[in-house]
Amino acid sequence: MDQIIIKELELYSNHGVYKEEKVLGQKFLVSAVLYTDTKRAGKSDKIEYSVNYGEVCHRIREIMEGNTFDLIERVAETIAERLLIEFDLIRKTEVEVKKPWAPIGLPIQSVSVRIERQWHRAYIGIGSNMGDRMKYINEAVKQMKQEDDLRLICVSDLAETEPYGYTEQDKFINGCIGIDTLKTPEELLEYLQGLENNAGRERIVHWGPRTLDLDILLYDDIVIHGDHLTIPHPEIPKRSFVLEPLVQIAPYERHPVLNKTILELKDALEEKEEK
Predict the structure, then answer these.
(1) Is 99 a catalytic residue?
(2) Which of 46, 50, 183, 226 could form a disulfide with 187 if both were Cys (CB 3.0 to 4.6 A apart)?
(3) Does the pTM exceed 0.85?
(4) Of 99, 145, 171, 275, which is the active-site residue?
């Protein structure tokens, strides 16, 4: 991906652990690498097809001067987050906040923090088989749209399906959602579980009835095997009610463990079920 590089933007602001730093302020140097596609701007010579680095610099100044943080880690995190959220063409950014002559009681040229943040593509399975099923699903989608650090990219058709695993329960409505998010997998899991809890979900029976079910199916090409989170979702290749809607929105997304596309997994499952 192409890069627009801002190097050592000089700003004066009031960040630091010590009272004197917050009262007197000091100089900071902020650098940023903006990852974006510059080809259209390069061909057309039109600024609207690129990231306006002047606007970015002024936004960084507003963030630096409009806040008072203890840590430059917080400064860097805030700058990265706001740039990614507010400038649509930035897919990824590296931000470095440098603090010259940091007050540590020893001769030092500078201390800096450098971070890298980006939008991540994730696919979420969504379902419900209790109460007003469509209301629970629609409300969850509505809440996702209101999140600054989450962008709803696509939503599959919703279909009524038979229960899976524990079959003594009502039919589900199931579908899949594609999102871009700044949340880590663990943060995304916590957020989705919060939506489930708000919908009154109770975890009593494994694979049992639920007002709202939100599962992380894929997250970039990441592979996680943890006590509370497994990505890709281990049941993807076995569930037609996941593969069918996922094929609608991401047919050529590749399973990072099985090295097959979602379409290939769907075809393999259908062939297996026909035998």
Answers:
(1) yes
(2) 183
(3) yes
(4) 99
